[in-house]
Backbone:
C-alpha cells in the first residue's frame, strides 16, 4: 500500500508540473499579441529587433514580387529588339540566339555556347523557352531535325 501511494503521489506531482509548464508556454505565446494590441505599453528591445526582422523579411517579399512581375522574354519567339533589352545581350548575341532556335530550355543558351555563363547568370530569371507544342514527341522531333 505504501508503494502504490507514493507512486501515485509522484505521478500526480509530475502531471501538475507539466500543466504548469504548458500554461507558462501559452502565456509566453500570447504575450507578444497582447503587447501589440496595446499601444501604450513600451516594447522591450528584443521585440523591436523582431519587428525590424519582420520588416526586413517583408521588404524581401516585396522585392521577390517585383522580380516576379518582370516580363520574361521567350527565347524561341522573341524579336531581335526584345532580346537586346536583356542585360548583356547585344546585336551579335541576339543574332546567335535567333540562329540557334528552337531551344528545349533556357539552359541550352550556355550548353550550345550561344552566350557566356556569366551573362546567362544575369538573365536566367528574365528568359523562358516556351515550347511550340504541348506534345513532347512533336517538340523532340523539332529538336532532332535541327541537328
Residues:
Amino acid at each position: 500500500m505504501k508503494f502504490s501511494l507514493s507512486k501515485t503521489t509522484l505521478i500526480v506531482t509530475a502531471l501538475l508540473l507539466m500543466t504548469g509548464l504548458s500554461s507558462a508556454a501559452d502565456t509566453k505565446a500570447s504575450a507578444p499579441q497582447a503587447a501589440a494590441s496595446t499601444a501604450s505599453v513600451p516594447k522591450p528591445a528584443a521585440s523591436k529587433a523582431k519587428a525590424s526582422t519582420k520588416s526586413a523579411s517583408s521588404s524581401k517579399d516585396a522585392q521577390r514580387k517585383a522580380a516576379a512581375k518582370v516580363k520574361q522574354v521567350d527565347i524561341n519567339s522573341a524579336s531581335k529588339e526584345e532580346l537586346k533589352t536583356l542585360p548583356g545581350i547585344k546585336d551579335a548575341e541576339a543574332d546567335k540566339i535567333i540562329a540557334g532556335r528552337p531551344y528545349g530550355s533556357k539552359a541550352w543558351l550556355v550548353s550550345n555556347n550561344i552566350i557566356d555563363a556569366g551573362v546567362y547568370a544575369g538573365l536566367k530569371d528574365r528568359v523562358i523557352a516556351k515550347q511550340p507544342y504541348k506534345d513532347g514527341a512533336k517538340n523532340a522531333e523539332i529538336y532532332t531535325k535541327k541537328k
